[in-house]
Amino acid sequence: MKPLNARCNKTAAAKKLGMSFKSLRYRLKKLVLE
After folding, report:
1. Could you tell me the pLDDT band of residue 4, with boundaries at 50, 70 and 90?
2. C-alpha 5: how far from its chain's center?
3. Phi, psi of 11, deg, nearest 5
């Protein structure tokens, strides 16, 4: 296991999570507003 590789995977996962979280919050806001 290479530390650099693990870091890259972590950042990629964080980005994916952040994107999904943002979209989820956006949907929730839309639902609340409508």
Report:
1. low
2. 19
3. -65, -40
Distance, in Å, from the CA atom of 9 to the CA atom of 29, rounded to the nearest integer, reads 30
Model confidence, pTM: 0.45
- Long-range pairs for 14-19: beta carbons < 8 A, 24 or more residues apart: none
DSSP-based three-state secondary structure for 1:
coil
Q: Does 31 have pLDDT greater than 80?
A: yes
- What are the residue boundaries of the structural domains of the chain, listed by start? 1-34
To 5 degrees, how large is the angle CA 28–CA 31–CA 34?
Answer: 150
